[in-house]
UniProtKB/TrEMBL annotation:
It comes from Nonomuraea africana. It comes from the Bacteria. The lineage of its organism: Bacteria, Bacillati, Actinomycetota, Actinomycetes, Streptosporangiales. Keywords: Kinase, Membrane, Transferase, Transmembrane, Transmembrane helix, Two-component regulatory system. This is Signal transduction histidine kinase. Pfam families: HATPase_c, HisKA_3. The chain crosses the membrane at residues 38-57, 64-86, 98-122, 134-153, 179-201, 213-234, 240-261, 273-295, 301-319. The keyword Transferase applies. Residues 469-661 form the Histidine kinase domain. One of its GO terms (molecular function) is kinase activity.
Length: 662
């Protein structure tokens, strides 16, 4: 049943459009020209209501859709029959009187339905309730009464002077039918005011997007009614202008409601309807201009129309593409052309001086392309960029992913309709991929900056330690030796035994100074690596922590460990030492296993103890400090350090260090 209704609605709307175009073609054959305000109003009305009405029927808003289709059909009937009757009088065509009668009585439904019925059903298409329902029925009755009154009105009593003076007689005319027109006018006024009141009441009660939709529709409806009322109160010429203008506000207000609030999801119909209407206007204008310019030269009956038809045929394709792009940009802004938007975004990022600046520009460009108030780009462990101060209560969140890893998040102000259009949503995800790469670059830049500052701080700390060791230990030892040697020089002749004792003491101090030098040298780098290699250095490290009550078990690859980059070996020895120190001090463990594995691209090892694990708060705090040091050592080589809590208890440090130089 519904499919039949949909098909019928589309057939009626299509027939109305065809009748309007046929009326336009007949207008070209007549001498009336296009400077006719009534003709302009009725033609525009016929064109702008048919397609939306058919779409509303398809969307299940049947009654409102049929009202729109009825308006279009009524106006189209009036256009076609009126033009046919006008041409038929000069061409001797048949049925002129019937067409004229239809033209006289068929225009009124388009007028009254818009003024007195449609307001009750906007914007949702739901049946009015309370006192407004009978008022809506009054509006429906006025449509029937007015149509009947015009159908029965003797034409000599018509306010259309051309019709009244034509001498033609209404074949169905009934004396006194004009009185019914007065009753109809009162009914239309009552129903129209009731419709406005209905919109006002619902506007006061509504909130959110529904309130915005009603505000736009109410404004358009009020403007339409005011123009219609004004058209009845001014002189003939001016009334035609107002009448023609009254067809414009309601479609525009509905267009704005659709554009801002996605009302009825009619954007596709709106886009195609606009392109179609503009194409029709372009064809008519092109035809008229060519005929006007070349009519005297080539003849207005054959030559100029043929040239005009050729010009129209040649211009259809490029003009259609141009209008499609223009309408899409009008409705969707920069999101209408995703390739162009991506190209301009790429150019913006290309000229950025630094990744952080690229993020700033990215947020601004995304906000402009998608026409939202605020866009924030948040990078994990990195900078953030904020375009706009307020995201609203429920922003749209899009993850930024690079190489399969989430590197950040982009937050956008939610559009008025609640969700982005499908085309905008697809463009947003494409932009998010670009943003993911930019966020990754910003994150790397931030990591590099942190590493640089850490290196500077480490170098300063190392210099301070060296200065302290030289000043506090080696320096005083050498000064004491120097003083004692001077004493030996002065007393060796007079007190040989005392000088010998001082010399022995100096030898002890020099031995201590040599020990200090060795300790300082060891502090600059593990000398065991240079002397023994990583495998033996690890054995020595394990042996140093091995003691009664704590058994250290080291397992190396059977093929041994080949020479690795110095930084990798130093980091491995440092991490193992830190892990064993934590185990010895805090884990209260009886055993600890060190497993070393060599892969083609990395050195992997784990240090696992059977102690109390991370449950102890003191253990956790201290290990947390040590873990930070181990993680930093691994990260400096682009490696990875994890702390795990095995199911059987204890703690496991799992490390992976790349074999290649970083």
């Amino acid at each position: 049943m519904r499919s039949r209704l949909v098909m019928m609605g589309e057939l009626v709307a299509g027939a109305a459009a065809a009748a309007t175009l046929a009326g336009f073609a007949l207008r070209l054959r007549s001498s009336a020209g296009f400077a006719d305000d009534y003709w302009l109003w009725i033609s525009i009305t016929a064109m702008v209501y048919g397609a939306p009405g058919a779409f509303l029927i398809r969307r299940g808003r049947t009654i409102l859709g049929w009202l729109f289709v009825a308006v279009s059909a009524s106006a189209a009937t009036s256009v076609f029959t009126g033009e046919y009757a006008a041409v038929a009088s000069g061409q001797g065509w048949p049925s002129r009187l019937v067409m004229l009668w239809l033209s006289v009585c068929s225009w009124l439904p388009a007028y009254v339905i818009v003024a007195a019925v449609v307001p009750y059903w906007l914007p949702s298409g739901e049946r009015p309730t309370g006192v407004f329902r009978p008022l809506m029925y009054v509006g429906c009755a006025s449509v029937v009464a007015g149509t009947v009154a015009w159908a029965l009105l003797p034409w000599e009593h018509s306010d259309d002077r051309a019709l009244a003076d034509s001498g033609l007689v209404n074949p169905l005319g009934v004396a006194g039918a004009e009185a019914l027109l007065q009753v109809c006018l009162v009914m239309v006024a009552v129903a129209a005011l009731g419709g406005l009141a209905s919109l006002g009441v619902r506007l006061l009660r509504a909130d959110g997007d529904e309130r915005g939709q009603l505000a736009w529709v109410a404004a358009g409806m009020a403007s339409t009614l005011l123009l219609l009322v004004a058209a009845q109160t001014v002189e003939a010429r001016g009334s035609g202008v107002l009448l023609a203008a009254s067809a414009v506000p309601l479609p525009i207000s509905v267009l704005l409601a659709i554009q801002r609030y996605r009302m009825w999801n009619m954007e596709k119909v709106l886009r195609r309807g606009l392109v179609w209407a503009l194409m029709s206007a372009e064809i008519a204008l092109c035809y008229a201009v060519v005929v006007a310019l070349l009519g005297d030269l080539l003849g207005r009956s054959v030559g100029a129309p043929l040239v005009a038809a050729a010009v129209v045929a040649i211009s259809v394709a490029p003009v259609h593409r141009f209008l499609q792009r223009g309408v899409r940009r009008l409705l969707y802004g920069e999101a209408a052309d995703p390739y162009d938007a991506l190209g301009r975004l790429g150019a913006t990022l290309e000229t950025a001086a630094a990744p952080a600046e690229a993020l700033e520009r990215l947020a601004g460009d995304v906000a402009r392309i998608l026409q939202v108030a605020a866009v924030w780009v948040l990078v994990l462990d990195g900078p953030e960029s904020r375009h706009g101060d307020d995201l609203g209560v429920d922003p749209v969140r899009v993850s930024l992913v690079h190489a399969g890893e989430t590197v950040g998040e982009m937050l956008l102000t939610r559009p008025r309709a609640g969700e982005f259009r499908p085309a905008e949503a697809r463009l947003l995800h494409v932009l998010a991929r670009q943003a993911g790469a930019a966020a990754h670059a910003a994150r790397l830049a931030a990591d590099l900056d942190r590493s640089r500052r850490a290196l500077v701080a480490a170098r300063a700390e190392e210099r301070r330690r060296l200065r302290r060791d030289l000043h506090d230990h080696l320096g005083p030892s050498l000064s004491a030796v120097h003083l004692q040697l001077e004493t030996v020089r002065d007393t060796v002749a007079t007190d040989p035994d005392g000088a010998r004792a001082l010399a022995d003491r100096c030898a002890t101090w020099v031995a201590g100074a040599v020990g200090d030098v060795r300790r300082i040298v060891d502090g600059l780098g593990p000398s065991a690596l240079d002397d023994l290699g990583l495998a033996e250095a690890l054995r020595a490290q394990a042996a140093r922590f091995h003691r009664p009550g704590l058994e250290i078990r080291l397992r190396l690859p059977e093929q041994g460990l080949p020479p690795l980059p110095a930084a990798t070996e130093a980091a491995a020895l440092r991490i193992v030492g830190e892990a064993l120190a934590n185990t010895a001090r805090h884990a209260r463990a009886g055993g600890c296993d060190i497993d070393v594995e060599l892969t083609p691209d990395a050195l992997c090892f784990s240090v696992r103890d059977d102690g109390v694990g991370m449950g102890s708060s003191d253990h956790g705090r201290r290990v947390g400090v040590g873990l930070e040091s181990m993680a930093e050592a691994a990260a400096q080589l682009d490696g990875k350090c994890e702390i795990l809590v095995p199911a059987g208890g204890g703690t496991e440090i799992r490390v992976r260090l790349p074999r290649a130089e970083v």
